[in-house]
Design goal:
Keywords: Membrane, Mitochondrion, Mitochondrion inner membrane, Repeat, Transmembrane, Transport. The chain has 341 residues and is an all-alpha fold. Helices cover 70% and strands 2% of the residues. Strands 1-2 form a two-stranded antiparallel sheet. 45% of the residues are buried.
Length: 341
């Protein structure tokens, strides 16, 4: 039986191996960890948000207004129990771990490359471009998993739609069954249903998120509020860094700004992902991002259509983005890798 000293030595050896790993490996590990922590923490809110976004797409094809947050929560807990709030989180984590790992690592690589070119200087514009490119790169590799997660969560809308009439339909869909059905009916192209509004939305969202975060951090430090030796600053290898609490604030603010601007495109994406599961008038189908924006605005308006579920999304974005930035930073520091964030 191993002694505590031997166990400690073994842990130290493992930590030393990770600290000696390639910078890209450290970025991938840190990004994946950050994504898993952030996504699991807000999984219930994410599922409710998806149901609200897609509740205007009825199973019968009849138009219907999005359900309320309270109604969706009560319906899920009543029909599936508290664990139902995390239904689909496995698919979500499977998607977000590689997505976050690729997103953060690609951002670091693109940022380093752009700084090396020198055309954009060292302004936050570098973060805007690097973040946008990194977001598109991550989406290209992980979009099918996002589609499966959305369709799995959408199954609950049948319960929500019928609960007022006293009828409850239980769906025991799994990732495997949803994937099999999708492949059988739509083939490989079906795995990228709705990818155009996703890419259109991720460019400004990912870019703005990193841009706002770096801009706020820069203003904070240049304003002289983070002076060496104060509690608002950490000193790492001669370079001043904002403290973790301030990173949480800046990360949350960045997420709010980016999400507010790009949210309508997220609604269009969710509708495109599930509309083929419902029967109805073909004229009501979304065929492109711009046409989808016009259609949703015309039929449901701004508050109940383009921004359906936005208030709930704010509750999700604040902790999710904040946790993502903070965990990524902390993990990289633990692995002995200097961070640009």
């Amino acid at each position: 039986m191993a002694t505590s000293e031997e166990a400690g030595a073994e842990r130290g050896a493992r930590n030393g191996t990770l600290r000696n790993a390639h910078p890209i490996v450290k970025e991938l590990l840190s990004g994946g960890t950050a994504g898993a922590c952030a996504k699991t923490a807000v999984a219930p809110l994410e599922r409710v948000k998806i149901i609200i976004q897609t509740s205007g797409v009825s199973h019968s094809g009849r138009p219907m207004e999005p359900a309320s947050i309270g109604r969706v929560l009560r319906s899920i807990v009543h029909s599936e129990g508290v664990r139902g709030l995390w239904k689909g989180n496995g698919a979500s984590v499977l998607r977000v771990v590689p997505y976050a790992a690729l997103h953060f690592s690609a951002y670091e690589r693109y940022r380093s490359w752009l700084l090396g070119l020198g055309y954009l200087g060292k302004t936050p514009v570098v973060d805007l471009v690097a973040g946008s490119a990194a977001g598109a790169t991550a989406v290209a590799f992980t979009y099918p998993l996002d589609l499966l997660r959305t369709r799995l969560a959408w199954r609950t809308s049948a319960v929500v739609a019928s609960s007022s009439g006293g009828r409850h339909h239980h769906h025991r869909a799994t990732m495997a069954s949803v994937l099999a059905q999708l492949a059988r009916k739509e083939g490989i192209p079906g795995l990228y249903k709705g990818v155009s509004p996703t890419l259109l939305g991720i460019f400004p969202y990912a870019g703005l998120k990193f841009f706002v975060y770096q801009y706020l951090k820069g203003v904070y430090m240049e304003g002289g509020r983070a002076k060496e030796g104060t509690t608002g600053e950490e000193k790492v290898e001669g370079e001043r860094f904002v403290s973790t609490p301030m990173k949480l604030v800046f990360g949350a603010s960045a997420g709010l700004v980016a999400q507010t601007i790009t949210y309508p495109l997220d609604v269009v994406r969710r509708r495109m992902q599930v509309q083929d599961l419902a029967s109805g008038d073909p004229s009501g189908k979304i065929r492109s991002s711009l046409q989808g924006l016009r259609l949703i605005y015309r039929t449901l308006g701004v508050r109940k259509g383009l921004y359906a579920g936005l208030s709930l999304n704010y509750l999700k974005v604040v902790p999710s983005t904040a946790i993502g930035f903070a965990v990524y930073d902390t993990a990289k520091e633990y692995l002995g890798h200097r961070t640009s964030i």
